[in-house]
């Protein structure tokens, strides 16, 4: 869907005065979580509700940004310091081919983070508190790895060092992808997720041979997206043409993340 010039101007004004969040932002993470929850099996849905009951919610969207929010909680600084590197992966080769010792040493990247917390979530011998935190991390990290600049190649800190003009002021490409593109739709997370879900099932990309690790493939897809022509805007200016061209990719990644998260949770939450 193309935005009208008036809509674009309104959104640009909004982002000129509102700080943009990070890691898809709460909007994107809530959309991914809601898309996944709509496709949980009854057994997985029941387990989500049981694990989240102490949080006084059964909604994945309510906890989707928790892994980011802990950095602002003085009582959670040790947890943030231990998990901050698990939100992203820095590929070291323009081919975006994953080499674990180079790209994810000691599993300290989003690929390793997802694998670790999925295993904790599926392990029913773990305390509920540990599995609850694992659920929060899985929901968040699967969203993160589908944001292209959380798995980029360039030596620009995932687009953070790539300065752009957006919303009438200086910004960077990472912030634009976290929140700016999605914000141009001017939709809250629930109606946005409803609209995306109403488009029907999304066809997922074919397996990347010879990979046998789904999490690696998802990260490689993001990395390769950043290398597509036009992803880095010429002239460092985000104009309407860029939004028209790249918003469909952002929404595609949200939909892919939601479907994949549902599949991961359906399996992990009903494991023997």
UniProtKB/TrEMBL annotation:
One of its GO terms (biological process) is DNA catabolic process. Gene3D superfamilies: P1 Nuclease (1.10.575.10). One of its GO terms (molecular function) is hydrolase activity, acting on ester bonds. CDD domains: S1-P1_nuclease (cd11010). The keyword Iron-sulfur does not apply. Residues 1-23 form the signal peptide. InterPro entries: PLipase_C/P1_nuclease_dom_sf (IPR008947), S1/P1nuclease (IPR003154). Keywords: Disulfide bond, Endonuclease, Glycoprotein, Hydrolase, Metal-binding, Nuclease, Signal. This is S1/P1 Nuclease. It comes from Dyella tabacisoli.
